[in-house]
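#dry-run=false #mode=assembly
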Amino acid sequence: MRPVYAISGGVSKFVKARRDKTFQAIVKEAYDYAIQDIGLDFPTFTRLVDGSVASYFSDHFTRQLMAGIMAQDYLGLTPKPSHRVEGGGATGGICFQEAWKSVASGHMDVCVAYGFEMMSHVETWKGNEFIALASDVSFDYPVGGFYSGYYAMMVTRHMKEFGTTVDQMAAVSVKNHINAFYNPYAQKRNRYTVEDVRNAPMVAWPLTRLDICVMSDGAAAVILASDEGLERLEAAGARVPRPLVQVVGIGRGTDAMRMADRPHVDYDEFMRDYATEEERSSDETCAYYRRLWQRGTRYPGVHSFRAGRTAGNMAYKMAGIYHPLQELDFIELHDAYTSSEIQTYEDLGLCRYGEGGPFAVSGKAFMPDIDYGLKAPEAPQCPVNPSGGLIACGHPVGATGLMQGVFAIWQLQGSIHKHFGDATLQVKNAVRGAIHSHAGTGTYVTVSILERVI
Amino acid sequence: MAKLPNQREEKLGGYIVHGVPFPVETTPEALAFLKKMAPLEIEQEYRITYLHSYGQDSPWFAGLTNRRLLASQAASSGYTYATPRGHDMYSGEETVWIDITERPAQVHAFTVCYFGSEEFLPETPFVLALIEFEGVNTLLLTRLMGVDPEQPTLEWIGMSVRPRFLRNSKLKPTDVYFIPAEKN
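#status=ok
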């Protein structure tokens, strides 16, 4: 595999409903932004790009099959190669990685990954039904198909098993909403308190409306290139910022569609197959996990995402990361629920399994110069969801994982001020960041590591 | 030769639009002004009835109609699935059916849904639960009855429960639901 650079990106403003344009035209907003940001005009980029990967989750939302080719067509990219990917909530993350593969393999020198979702064409409860059809329609959906319900079940187990509290979850919502206050692309730019989150209408106990991301209309696009592709673009006048942003690691994991089917493995199997290198090499952590298992914990059960841990470990290994909390400068992760952000802290090795709740309020995942109105005992170490995440930015499924890629590129280029019109969310001296995309009840998870090449 | 119609027959129904604001003359200025026009929205209906086969899982549903709760087991290892699978995910071998109706069971995780998908909105609030069974390796998603959905508590986790079956089977996984073991 050869080096792949993430050179540019664009995002449409995520909103509840875009009535003014069809999905193709909204994709074009993001696509045009990415092209213009490297100083190329549309015809020149069209001539130089080798192909694309299209990302959208549900044919139901648009009542349109083969929407990918309609976007490809509208962007003027026909007859260049393209394909659509779909993997639930991780669709955008998978798209990013498939575009990476197209370039890394040598099949393409310049590949654009674009994605979208138009969720406003149906009422929220019908949208919930479409999303719930991404659960087993023989055994899960008919029982009361509702993803917020599935995630609520996971977190009641997490609470019972590890003592995680609703206030810890609410702190995640407060953090992400306040981060998004400075992000003009975010759908919800509100300052909330823990009390606001807990007093919001209960959706699926213990998750309130402010613990849960919203449905959105939106699109995002990322341009990836090889050294040869970069040379080609720059010879045509492209101005690609230096230092470059390279994709230095990708990982992907899966798990059973029905979360009831997830295994409950013993301590030895966990340490052998799932523990991070850092965990394995710490006697204290081994002893901690042994105590958890003696108390009855089994892995992953329904409280943890083995796909996320697998994806993280794979990406870290490829990127040479041993201590993620110290070696990553920020993470954009899939916080469809406040609870899943806490679960994902653990999967990504930012803390140990069972310690996600205290980690959420420790301050380690906070932005350094933002007042959240929360008393954090520790200094920020690795901001998580500096953009505001899905909770506040919105979650137009096929665009979400690519939105994370765009924000990560801008963080590593040091260009947040340019794109947001405000530098508050710029992680200072960001060298390396991770993006994390997640599907179903943890069925597909992708982790990609982006690094500023010095 | 019969006269062929050269005009579509128009019927009442759907949208009947007699006039949408539009320039009287399509001058360049008027056409340019159309860029400021608000989008038109219409309703599109999409209904379909699927014939869904339970395939190799059919006996599980047949069991429910006969008040028996079946599970799948890998004969060689004894690994047992509360939610049936035709083949074991570890050995790849075809599973056999076992009866777990009388197995001790308890709540592993739960939630109360106060909102939901359109199909289930009329049933809110309802309690979803994952049930664990003694000697069974995986869980079963079900509805939990006999608890107050307005007073959820983590104490429900670990509560002993037992299955109850609908008298009038619908051939759905909701033909079985669970209630606290001590309730009648």
